[in-house]
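Researcher: Quick test of sequence recovery. C-alpha cells follow.
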C-alpha cells in the first residue's frame, strides 16, 4: 500500500456572509463562489491549467447552476481540460469538498485542487406543489380545444400554493422534524436553559464584532453588486446584542415549551469559501505558502432526531486515533447551527453516561474550554450558508492557529439527516 502524502492548505478566501432579508439576495451562488475563487487564484503565479480539479460543495444551486462546481470553474477561467464537480452532504458540503480533495492528493491522484463551498440560501427556489404539476401535465397533454377547456375547469386556487424548498430542506423527511426541533431535543436531553442559549448567542455576536474590529477576518473578499453597493463584512452581526433583548423573542419551533429562537439559532445567509490544497511537491514547485496541514478527517452517523450531536460523534474517533486529550487541541471551530447544539456537544463530552453509551468511551472526555472555542464567533452571529460553512470553519481555523502561533485545531459540524464531520489540522510552523 502506497504511503499517504502530506496535504497542505495553501491559501483561502471567502465572501462576506450576507443575511437573507425576505427576498433574493444580490448575488447568485456562482457569483459568490467566483468572487472568492478569483481573489484566491490571483494571489498565485501558477497557470490555472496546473490545477488537477475543482470541487465545490453546494446544497441548492439554482436552475442555471447544474454542477455548479463546473460552472464556477469555467467562469474563473480554469481551462476546460480541468475537471470540476459538485458535492452535497447537507451542512458539511464545503468540508466534504475539502475532504475529497485531501484524499485525492494524499493518494497521489492530484497535486493541487481548488475546493470549497457555496450557498445562496436567499435564492432557494419556490416549487410548484404536486396538484399544480399534475394539472400542468394534463394541460400540456390536451390535444383538442375541448380537452384544454375541460382541463382549465379543473384548476383550483390551492394549486398555486408553493412548496418552499428551504423549509423542506431544513426538515428531516425520515423523522419528520425540522432542524430547530432536533435542537430542542438536545436542550431537553442535557437540560440546557434559555439563558444558556441566549448567553452563548450574545457571546457569538460580541466575538464576531470584535474580530471585525481587530482585522482578524482578512480572508474576506469584498463583494460589489451592479448598483454601486459593496459588502465587506458579515452583515448579520449585532454588536449591541444582549441577553435582555434576546429574551424578548418567542420560541420558533416549539411555541409552547421550547427555548430555541431565531436569536439563538444560525441565521439564513448567502456566502462562499474556497481553499487551495496542494501536495508537498506542488508547494515546492510553485513556491506556495502554507497555512496548515490536514492531518485527519472523520465522518459519523447518528439519530437524525438529534443530528446536532454530530460533532462529538465525528471528533471522538480522531481523538482516539491520535491518543489526544482536550488539552492537545489548541483551538476548536464547531459550527453554530444552534447555540444549544454546540452547548449539547460540550455537555456530551463531560457526561460519563453519554461517552460510554453513545461514543464507546470508558469515561467522560472532558470539557472544551470556552476561550478556545469559536473565538471569533460562529453561525449564530455570521450565519450558516449550508454549502459553505464546512469550508469556512476550516479556513478560519487555519487563520486562528497562525494568529496565535498555536499548533493544532479541530473543525467540526453537525449535518442534517443525522451525521457529523470533523477535520484535524496543524500549523506547520
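Model:
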Amino acid at each position: 500500500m502506497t504511503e499517504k502524502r502530506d496535504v497542505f492548505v495553501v491559501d483561502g478566501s471567502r465572501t462576506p456572509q450576507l443575511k437573507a432579508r425576505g427576498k433574493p439576495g444580490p448575488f447568485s451562488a456562482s457569483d459568490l463562489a467566483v468572487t472568492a475563487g478569483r481573489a484566491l487564484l490571483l494571489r498565485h503565479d501558477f497557470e490555472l491549467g496546473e490545477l488537477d480539479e475543482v470541487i465545490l460543495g453546494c446544497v441548492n444551486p439554482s436552475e442555471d447552476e447544474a454542477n455548479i462546481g463546473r460552472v464556477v470553474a469555467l467562469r474563473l477561467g480554469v481551462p476546460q481540460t480541468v475537471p470540476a464537480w459538485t458535492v452535497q452532504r447537507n451542512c458539511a458540503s464545503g468540508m466534504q469538498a475539502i475532504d475529497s480533495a485531501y484524499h485525492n492528493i494524499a493518494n497521489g491522484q492530484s497535486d493541487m485542487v481548488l475546493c470549497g463551498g457555496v450557498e445562496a440560501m436567499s435564492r432557494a427556489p419556490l416549487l410548484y406543489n404536486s396538484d399544480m404539476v399534475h394539472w400542468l401535465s394534463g394541460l400540456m397533454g390536451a390535444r383538442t380545444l375541448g380537452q384544454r377547456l375541460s382541463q382549465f375547469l379543473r384548476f383550483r386556487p390551492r394549486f398555486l400554493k408553493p412548496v418552499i424548498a428551504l423549509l423542506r430542506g431544513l426538515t428531516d423527511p425520515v423523522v419528520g422534524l425540522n432542524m430547530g426541533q432536533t435542537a430542542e431535543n438536545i436542550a431537553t436531553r442535557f437540560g440546557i436553559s434559555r439563558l444558556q442559549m441566549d448567553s452563548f448567542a450574545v457571546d457569538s455576536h460580541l466575538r464576531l464584532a470584535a474580530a471585525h474590529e481587530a482585522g482578524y477576518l482578512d480572508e474576506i473578499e469584498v463583494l460589489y453588486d451592479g448598483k454601486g453597493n459593496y459588502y465587506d463584512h458579515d452583515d448579520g452581526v449585532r454588536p449591541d446584542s444582549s441577553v435582555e433583548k434576546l429574551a424578548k423573542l418567542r420560541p420558533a419551533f416549539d411555541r409552547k415549551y421550547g427555548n430555541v429562537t431565531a436569536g439563538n439559532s444560525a441565521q439564513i445567509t448567502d456566502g462562499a469559501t474556497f481553499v487551495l490544497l496542494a501536495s508537498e511537491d506542488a508547494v515546492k514547485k510553485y513556491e506556495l505558502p502554507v497555512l496548515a496541514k490536514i492531518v485527519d478527517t472523520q465522518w459519523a452517523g447518528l439519530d437524525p432526531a438529534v443530528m446536532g450531536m454530530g460533532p462529538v460523534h465525528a471528533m471522538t474517533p480522531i481523538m482516539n486515533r491520535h491518543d489526544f486529550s482536550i488539552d492537545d487541541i489548541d483551538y476548536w471551530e464547531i459550527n453554530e447551527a444552534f447555540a444549544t447544539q454546540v452547548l449539547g456537544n460540550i455537555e456530551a463530552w463531560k457526561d460519563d453516561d453519554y461517552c460510554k453509551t453513545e461514543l464507546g468511551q470508558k469515561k467522560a472526555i472532558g470539557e472544551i474550554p470556552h476561550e478556545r472555542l469559536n473565538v471569533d464567533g460562529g453561525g449564530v452571529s455570521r450565519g450558516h450558508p449550508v454549502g459553505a460553512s464546512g469550508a469556512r470553519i476550516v479556513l478560519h481555523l487555519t487563520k486562528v492557529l497562525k494568529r496565535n502561533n498555536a499548533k493544532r485545531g479541530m473543525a467540526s459540524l453537525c449535518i442534517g439527516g443525522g451525521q457529523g464531520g470533523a477535520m484535524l489540522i496543524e500549523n506547520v510552523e
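The chain has a mean pLDDT of 95.
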